Every structure is written in C-alpha cells, then in structure tokens.
Amino acid sequence: MKLKLAAAAAAATALTLTGCGLTGGGEQEVGTESNGVTTLTVGTSVTPHGDIFRFIDENLAPDAGIDIEVQEFTDYSLPNRALVDGEIDANYFQHLPFLESERENQGYELYHFEQGIHIEPFALYSEKHNSVEDLPDGATVGINNDPANQGRALKLLADNGLITLAEGVDPITATVNDVAENPKNIEFVEAEAAQLARTLADTDASVINGNNALNAGLSSKKDGILVESPEGNPYTNILVVRAGDENNEAIQTLAELAHSEEVANFITETWPEGEVIPAN
Questions:
Q1: pLDDT band for position 21 (cuts 50, 70, 90)
Q2: 41, 120, 182, 257 — which has fewest CB within 10 A?
C-alpha cells in the first residue's frame, strides 16, 4: 500500500480541530496532544520492532501530525498488560497466535489490525553441529516455554522430519506432550524465549525467535541449520491497541504509517538477508 502522507496529515489536522484524538475505547485516553501534534506511546520488542517504529517516527510521523515514543520491552508478558493498564497506546511485538493465547488466558480485551507488518522466520541454531543430520541421539534442543511459540517451534522440527506430532493436533497450540514420534530421542529443554539465545552453548541446538536471534547477532539465513518458511505463515507481527481504540483517528494514522510501502522498503533494505521480511 502506497502511503498517502497528505491524507494522513489531513487526518491528523482533523484530530486537532475536532478534539477527538484523545478519547479511547475505554477509560484510558489515547495519546497526548500539544500544538497540533498527537504523541502516541508504542510498546515494542527491541529488535526489529523498536527499529521499525523509530523509522516511522523519524521519517513518516512528522508529516502525519503524530509523534511516536517507543517504549521497549524484553519480557513478552509485559506489553499487553501495559496496554490494558493505559501505560502505552499501542504495542507491536507479537503475532496473532500469541495474542489469542493472551486473550484466552489473561482475559485481555485487545484489538489487532488484521494486516501484518513483518515476519521473522524462526530457525534452529547450533554452536556444536553444522546440520540437523549431525544432531546425536538424545540431543538436547532448547524450545520456547510459552504456548504460542512452543507449537511454532515444534512445527519447524516436524516439518523437517525431526519429530512427528500426534494426529489431529493443531501445530499452533502443540506442546512437547503432543510429540508422537521422536526418532532421535530429542530431549527438549524448555526456557523463556529471551534465554534461548543466551544458553545456546548449553544445548545441542535451540529454536530461537527471530528478534532474540537478531539481538544475539544471529542470522537465520547465515546461521540457522533449519529455517521456517515465510509462505502462508500465520506468525506475522501485528499492531495491537485496546478494544474500542481502533477507530481513534491518531491510531488510524499510526496504522496507516505502519502498513505503508515505505516501511516495507525499510525492512527489506535493513535486513537484506531475509532475517526480517515485510508482510505486505
């Protein structure tokens, strides 16, 4: 989608004229307004999410009448709680399966924009082995301990023949208890996502989230011994706001900027090896 900055700027001007830019879907206000500019706080993961929204803030937001304050989180359990509590106005760190798990388990009333912004392919990394064929019998493999990402990691292993999931199991919600066949007798080491890159040397291999791999200086294309396919992938990262705030004009402008062609080009140019891939 080609961004129409003039239209975005007009929408931002309308915020000032109508005074409707600060009212959210619940009790929390959306952003703060000063001198015709609406400031929105967006909670993100560090890389690439924070990088993407800093690009938007520096290059696109000024002409659209908004200012973005990026608040980075390293713990996946915090950004949705911060959004619900009104500490931030939007967040950008998660894919839909993770959000659905949070809605179900935490009762969060959150809205997601259906169009994704980017995807980071999961990969299996190893400091000890150059290929999956080299993994020994009884290999230790690090894997996410959160439900939404554990199924994603298991699907990567199943798609490449390392394990078989039980018949009828939805890979999105699969857990290690759903492994039906395990010919290499893999021993799964469950850990919080950010820990997997830090403890890679302690395992034979680990499946690591794209953003955590990037933070650790790993490239899925260069370093991964297995890499997830982006085709038909349900794990695109999405922009999330409180339910009811999706029609707020400042939020609408933010969403238009985030889904723009300029952002897609920034992603492609910044990560040319495909560690981060635009979704639109």
A1: very low
A2: 182
- Bridge partners (DSSP) of residue 70 are 42
130-142 mean pLDDT: 97
CA dist 37 and 175 (Å) reads 46
Start-to-end Cα distance in the chain: 8
Average pLDDT for residues 14-29, to the nearest whole number? Answer: 48
Assign domain 123-227 to its CATH architecture. Answer: 3-Layer(aba) Sandwich (3.40)
Q: Are 5-119+234-278 and 123-227 equal in CATH topology? A: yes
Please check the confidence at residue 11 and state whether its pLDDT lies above 60: no
- Nearest residue to 52 (alpha-carbon basis) of 92, 88, 12, 82: 92
Return the beta strands (E) in 113-242 as ranges.
Answer: 118-119, 123-125, 140-144, 164-165, 179-181, 187-191, 205-208, 226-227, 237-242
Q: 1: which residues sit within 8 A by CB, 6+ positions away? A: 259, 260, 261, 280
pTM of the model: 0.83
Q: CATH second-level architecture of 5-119+234-278?
A: 3-Layer(aba) Sandwich (3.40)
Name which of 57, 41, 58, 143 is nearest 92 in CA terms: 41
Sequence ranges of the domains in the chain = 5-119+234-278, 123-227
Q: In whole angstroms, how large is the CA radius of gyration of the chain?
A: 20
